[in-house]
Amino acid sequence: MREIKFRAWLEGTHDNLTFSEPTMDYNVTLSQEGFWCDVEGSWDIHGAYSTIPIMQFTGLHDKNGTPIYEGDILREEPKNDWEKTNYSSFEVFFHDGDANVDYNIGFTMGRMKCHGAIAGGYTPSFKPKTVNEMIVIGNIYENPDLI
């Protein structure tokens, strides 16, 4: 059974954020920095914060055990000094199909960006065996330069 949890990105500092179900409200206190909010379960956002980005947990973890969410940026772990600055990064996102492709619907990696002396390459598959050998290096909100 896959663990269901979400993460919210907020610009600036806010005291709290309310997530609600039809019968109950859940107040989630933000981190000390005031930017990230982790939520477990499946809730709808209402009110002033209804336009903030919500990212779902993919159910997978990187090589270091870090949970992987939509919007995270992954890369292969560097094996030497050259690979520390020369690498490809990949954004994690939910692919919901399109007019031409009805397969591979779900979480995937894409939107590759090459850093340093890397030009082109391949996009690895978003499968446990592959992402368990990669590392999360940031996300599209805090690190837009990585993608």
Chain oligomer state: single chain
What's the CATH topology label of the largest domain?
SH3 type barrels
Q: What characteristic shape results from the CA principal axes?
A: globular
Strand content: 35-45%
How many strands, which pairing sense, and closed or not: the largest β-sheet? 4 strands, antiparallel
Number of domains: 2
Your description of this structure?
With 147 residues, this protein is mainly β. The chain has 2 domains: 48 residues, no CATH class; 90 residues, Roll (SH3 type barrels), CATH 2.30.30. Helix content is 6%, strand content 43%. It contains 2 helices and 11 strands; from the N terminus they run E-E-E-E-E-E-E-E-H-E-E-H-E. The strands form 3 sheets. A 4-stranded antiparallel sheet has the order 4-1-6-7, with no helix packed on it. A 4-stranded antiparallel sheet has the order 10-9-8-11. The longest helix is centred in the middle third of the chain and has 5 residues. The radius of gyration is 17 Å and the shape is globular. About 11% of the residues have low confidence.
Structure at a glance:
By secondary structure, the protein is mostly beta strands. The chain has helices at 81-85, 128-131; strands at residues 5-9, 16-20, 25-29, 36-40, 44-45, 54-61, 67-69, 72-76, 87-95, 106-115, 134-139.
Secondary-structure blueprint:
Layout (H helix, E strand, L loop, with lengths): L4 E5 L6 E5 L4 E5 L6 E5 L3 E2 L8 E8 L5 E3 L2 E5 L4 H5 L1 E9 L10 E10 L12 H4 L2 E6 L8
Antiparallel strand pairs: 1-4, 1-6, 2-3, 2-5, 6-7, 8-9, 8-11, 9-10
